[in-house]
Amino acid sequence: MEQGTRNRRRAGMEQESLASAYLKRAGVQILERNYRTQKGEVDIIGEDGEYLVFFEVKWRSQNGSGYASEAVDRRKQRQICGVADYYLYENAIPQDQGIRFDVIAVDGEKIEWIKDAFSYTGRNF
Fold first, then answer.
1. What is the pLDDT of residues 69-113, one digit of tens each?
2. Is 4 exposed, middle or buried (0-12, 13-18, 19+ CB in 10 A)?
């Protein structure tokens, strides 16, 4: 594995740990971290009040490459929804369970929690 890739992966894991700690302090119960399926991965799955929330953590060390919150494009949203579908099915989550897709954007030292960052179109199973 290339050194730069390894360093970015380690930095990403550190940012996910910071995001998890931030969410716990805000009262979120963390259920899963780095939940993987053949369709992809969701960084954090947790419960925030009555909602089951799928969190995507994005970070930027500098704003030169844009803001972290801008990094969750349509393709990534579809991928996260596909992983969520599998999680919902695998865990027999009831159809009436409220779900939400949030982004934790880390820009340098600033953490922003964007609730309801994108919409879920329905279960795909």
1. 566 888 889 999 999 999 999 999 999 999 999 999 988 778 999
2. exposed
d(CA 47, CA 98): 10
For the whole prediction, is pTM greater than 0.90?
no
Give me the residue spans of the domains in the chain: 3-114
Structure token pair of residue 29: 């119960």
Return d(Cα 3, Cα 30) in angstroms, integer: 31
Distance CA 62, CA 67 (A): 8
Give CATH for domain 3-114.
3.40.1350.10
